[in-house]
Amino acid sequence: MEKTRYRGTKDEVRALKTYVKLMRASESVSARIHGQLAATVLTVSQFGVMEALYHLGPLSQGELAKKILRSRGNITMVIDNLEERGLVKRERNRQDRRFYAVRLTSEGRRLIGSIFPRHAAKIVEEMKSLTRSEQEELSRLCRKVGLGEDK
Fold it and tell me: How many helices (H) and strands (E) in the chain?
């Protein structure tokens, strides 16, 4: 095991080192993948909302917040900014008029449709450092940790 300044139990040291490596890898990969968004003048959150709407269709603000792991307050601001740019539109839900569905406008669909293929290609390129089976194992492990499963 690598040296560390932390003097906890072996389990604590291992868990902390694993966590640090997970966070560093995540931040590093995210920075490389999302770096290309600067040219589109979209934030990572705005891209996440547009990508979710592009692939899933209209969603409520609450559903979008859950999909892209943002707070309801943050998602409102993100959608406000996208709506101001004419990229999304809020429409009252016909089944439950208390809620609004958010959908892409034709301009929003055109923009995300032009961005997403490059984004997907960048992700594929980043994941090439892992074999197919390593990608599947990493996916399984990340899901397990993300869901907080014990075993």
Answer: 6, 3
DSSP state of 40: G
> Reduced to 3 DSSP states, what percent helix, strand and coil does the chain have, rounded to the nearest 5?
70, 10, 25
Q: What is the DSSP letter of 95?
A: S
Q: If phi over 0 gives left and psi between -120 and 50 gives alpha, with beta otherwise, what is residue 2?
A: beta
The pLDDT confidence band at residue 151, using thresholds 50, 70 and 90, is low
Write the pLDDT tens digit of every residue in 35-53. Answer: 877 777 899 999 999 999 9
The two tokens of residue 58 are 């209209």
Count CB neighbours of 145 within 10 A.
12
Q: What is the CATH number of domain 15-115?
A: 1.10.10.10
The whole-model pTM stands at: 0.81
